[in-house]
Records
---
Amino acid sequence: MVQTNKLSKDDSEALKDNTQYRKMVGKLLYLTFTRPDICFAVQQLSQFLDKPTILHLQAVHRVLMYIKSCPGQGLFFPTDSNLKLSGFADSDWAGCPDTRKSVTGFCVFLGNALVSWKSKKQNTISRSSPEAEYRALALAACEIQWLYYLLEVLEVQLGEAAILFSDSKSVIAIAENPVLHERTKHIEIDCHLIREKVQRGVIKLLHVPTEHQTADILTKPLQPLLFHRFVSKLGLHSMYTLA
């Protein structure tokens, strides 16, 4: 997606017939099961199914052009990967120009293999950037806990806490502080959830610089160089490229 443009519901003339738009976005939604690199773009485009505009259709065509340029790209699962969970959680505060809701993005790896990812608009409006980041962190923590349960059913013992990276030092400080301050009472449930996972040894929180925050690709449009760097970090490879 174009980094400087943020799609909104009334940004241009509405399409007279939205059938084609709906069909293309519906097919792209299925493709996100194996292509996390288009997950954010499709999440954005799917919000305008009821009344798409000309600019929305142009954005769909841009995604299709990108897919056409790399048709064989997909997830790669190495055989020598270790069985250790790690993840990245991030958010784009007030990223939606229509509702001012934030966008959550997270990705979870089992060893070097990407096994879970999500780009989703948050249900409520966050009053600060740390609050939006904390909600993203809580969602990622729940996903990691679910993966722990799944691996237990498969009789896979991990034996150590999953590493969860965040580029917000204030969020990590809130998670490690047992005292709930006035400014954190409205996210008290998320605070308790994260602290419980940390205390039980399910996750371990670590800070990561923003330029190395892999989940950024799931929260906002990025410049091409940074976009392709994160695509590589997600473990996406083209079957047409020699190893």
Note: The radius of gyration is 19 Å.
---
Amino acid sequence: MVIKANKTEVYALGQHISMSVHKARRVIDQIRGRSYEETLMILELMPYRACYPIFKVVYSAAANASSLLGSNEADLVISKAQVNEGTTLKRLKLRARGRSYRIKKPTCHIMIVIKDISISDYEETFWLKPEKFFEKASMQELKKIKGKNQYKTRKEHYMYNNGGTWDKK
């Protein structure tokens, strides 16, 4: 299923893939935000079983982008990648003395959104206007600003958003 949200994004969806959500998310977290060619190399070299179905969905999304948007593979970036939980298949395993145990086989839905960066004009969004965000302010202007908008440089902005100087991951 393919839908163009705006004229630069296309997605591909793989449904009912027989795999746990946690195992697929481990791989999806590695490819989110990377370029298409880099993603294919990562997926080929990672040793997880989840890589092959994700590889197929990424390849399908790129084929959709090239057919619908006419984009080049070098300009594609994975803008959004998510794994949702699908239906759980319930099966019975026969045991001794006529008993049976229930087996749950989880499934997942993988969605990959690919964006063509050659078509779109990439602009970063800040909570202040960019021209005001990077200009040097005098001490009088700094005293007027209160609250969370007090940071004027990009480094201070990132440090404020991350909660400190170290990374929380």
Note: Residues 122-130 have pLDDT under 50 and may be disordered.
---
Amino acid sequence: MDPPRTKYVLYTWGANSFGQLGQGHAEDQVEPQHVDYGQPSRKLRAIAGGGGHSALITESGELLVCGQNHKGQLGIGHVLEIVTFQLCPLPGNKTVQQVSCGWDFTIILTDDGQVLACGSNAFGQLGVSPQIKHTAEPHFVKSLGESVISIAAGLRHALAVTGSGGVYQWGTGLSSQAKRALNPQPVPAHLISQEPCLVPGMDQLTSQKVAAGSAHSVCLTATGDLFLWGSNKHGQLCSKESFLPLPSALDRSLLNGESVSAVYSGWTHLIAQTESGRIFTWGRANYGQLGRQGPTDDATSVDSVSSSETSLPSEVKTLYGATQIACGSEHNLAIVAAEMRTG
């Protein structure tokens, strides 16, 4: 008998109104379904989901996209919707290290540490000139003066971590909630800037990765700690406060004392993978986006979140050891290795 070999399979599930699941149609999927991304012989380096679009990065650094494209968020030079994954060519034939999809925009990190952005710029979420309202061609975010190692796109804001460990934020997506929550105190600059702005409170830490939701931000440090800030309306920050303007550390006891190796964020839910490979989810559950049973009504709020079981991290055992995970607005993608025997 031949030794076991590993086959990597792409699954997508959840909301699919614009074909963002890449399944060739626009019907929602409650359970994970296998997806053909047109290149079965190529492993995927990374996967990502946004408001109504999704993206894949192949092992060779090619970018594949599908879904909603009305603001040019697929970066393919036009604004037509696509329901199966197609190639997105980049300026100078650059290869891609990471991609993050916002509501109607996309942030792309190249292998040489440069950042590109496409789609809507109505809230400064592209980090480029405010004169650009939207673009179907990826533009470089030139004001990030040094090499970048991690990026994240939220609803209408974005984040980046530079090689020196600095955390930057831009886009005004959190400004309205911040003003209401902090009034009469002023809103910190990083929550209202249309160009990359340094996030305070992280300078003594070694930041490695960022993630973003509709109105919250997350940063993972080299020591495996999570820092969260922004809106806590659906319990996604595991805090008693309705809004956190500055980064606040997540208590490790909520993850059985384990350090975090990876973190992912939907609009109002979070997924964390711990050092042992366990997968924890928490936050909003109205579309089944937590991958586990929980309250399905939409009553979760600041007042009720403390008593909701979804506001605390809980393990999804079927995703144990996942090699890649990504969250869209209210849908998720995951790659899980399975042993196959032949002969």
Note: The longest strand covers residues 5-14.
---
Amino acid sequence: MTMKLKLIFGVTECKSTVQDLLIIEDVSTSVGPRNYGKMKDFVVDTIRNISISSKKTNVAFMVFSDTAEVVFHLNTYRDNKTSIMEAIDSQTHTGGNSFLGDAIKLATSEVFTETNGDRSDVPNVVLLLTDGYSDANEDVRSSIDGLKAKAEVFVMTVTDQVDNTTIDLVASSPALKHVFHIDASETARSIKNVTSLQICTDHMGR
């Protein structure tokens, strides 16, 4: 996203960007109930700070473990932040294996489509919360380029032990700007910048 500056009156005006945001939660056994609780609380707090409406940010939500599931699409709760927060808050830690590749394929084929609310004129952003472990790494490698072609991918690691190789593969480049840890002091601010980014225009007199 390019930030354009126009100098006219000496006043700074800011407006929130519009985006289609997909949040993907890893609910597999390796994440664990305690880390999952932190993950869910973080996501709900993140949603609370986003301007959500049909003309602003739209949100979709997925979970994955043995299988991947779209809990709701970009156009399911387009004008209802409360329903989004309730749907995310009601999600539980199911446990099971971790098929990250299936989640990536489903996001690419089903979430970012016009039928399910994807808007062609706004940026697509993915926030993936995971430890990076997958029971089918080949599926991750073969499918991630398709998702990256449609969206900018940010990864939040949620455990102390993570698969850095897979995380760096999944995240958009550079990884330094697209990978965060849930317990890092700067993460909340960084994710807020990603999901509630403002473009500011400085106006100065001539």
Note: The chain has one domain: 18-203.
